[in-house]
């Protein structure tokens, strides 16, 4: 905080203070995520501009990475549960080139899925039977192979 003493905003000349407040969001990889309200960020008392230094940026990245991983797990679980109502997990694992049981590990929260896999699952979950048939056609599976 001593680094902030007497520091002025380059936008308006107001004083910079450490401010913790709810409602802030930050982009992290593919998502906009909430920044924890308890995190103090150097902010102009007059215009509200945030002045994120290296240390604050690193702290935000750590918090958003944790939130990002949690959100990926939640979205994967939701998509898998919707798909599994119409298509077996085993069939989906074979189609996506995943190891046997991997989707069960994701559903249980034992693994962290990639953003790419979560994107695929989200698209498939919108119309599971149709999307699986389209992928099987794309990969050249015969219908008896798909079962």
Structure, briefly:
By secondary structure, the protein is mainly α.
Textual characterization of the structure:
There is one protein chain. This protein has helices at residues 54-84, 89-96, 102-108, 115-126, 128-139, 143-146, and strands at 16-19, 25-28, 31-34, 41-44. The termini are far apart. The protein has six helices and four strands; from the N terminus they run E-E-E-E-H-H-H-H-H-H. It is elongated and about 70 Å long. By secondary structure, it is mostly helical. The protein has two domains: 1-52, Ubiquitin-like (UB roll), CATH 3.10.20; 71-146. Helix content is 50%, strand content 11%. The mean pLDDT is 92.
Shape: elongated
H-E order: EEEEHHHHHH
Please indicate the count of domains: 2
Radius of gyration: 22 Å
> Counting H and I runs of at least 4 residues, what is the number of helices?
6
Largest sheet, if any?
A: 2 strands, antiparallel
Q: What is the total tally of β strands? A: 4
> Order of strands in the sheet with the most strands?
1-4
Helix coverage percent of residues? 40-55%
Estimated share of beta-strand residues: 5-15%
**Model regions low in confidence, pLDDT < 50 over at least 5 residues:** none
Mean pLDDT comes to 92
Helix-and-strand structural type = mainly alpha
Distance between the termini: 63 Å
Give me some keywords for this one.
two-stranded antiparallel ribbon; Ubiquitin-like (UB roll); 6 helices; mainly alpha; 147 residues; 2 domains
């Amino acid at each position: 905080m001593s680094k902030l003493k007497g520091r002025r905003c380059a936008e308006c000349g107001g004083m910079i203070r450490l401010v913790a407040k709810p409602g802030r969001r930050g982009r992290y990889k593919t998502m906009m995520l909430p920044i924890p309200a308890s995190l103090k960020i150097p902010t102009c008392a007059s215009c509200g501009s945030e002045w994120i230094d290296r240390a604050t940026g690193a702290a935000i990245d750590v918090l958003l990475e944790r939130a990002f991983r949690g959100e990926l797990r939640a979205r994967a679980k939701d998509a898998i549960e919707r798909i599994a109502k119409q298509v077996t997990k085993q069939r989906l694992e074979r189609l996506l080139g995943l190891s046997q049981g991997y989707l069960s590990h994701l559903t249980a929260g034992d693994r962290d899925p990639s953003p790419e896999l979560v994107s695929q699952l989200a698209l498939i979950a919108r119309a599971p039977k149709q999307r699986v048939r389209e992928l099987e056609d794309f990969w050249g599976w015969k219908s008896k192979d798909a079962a």
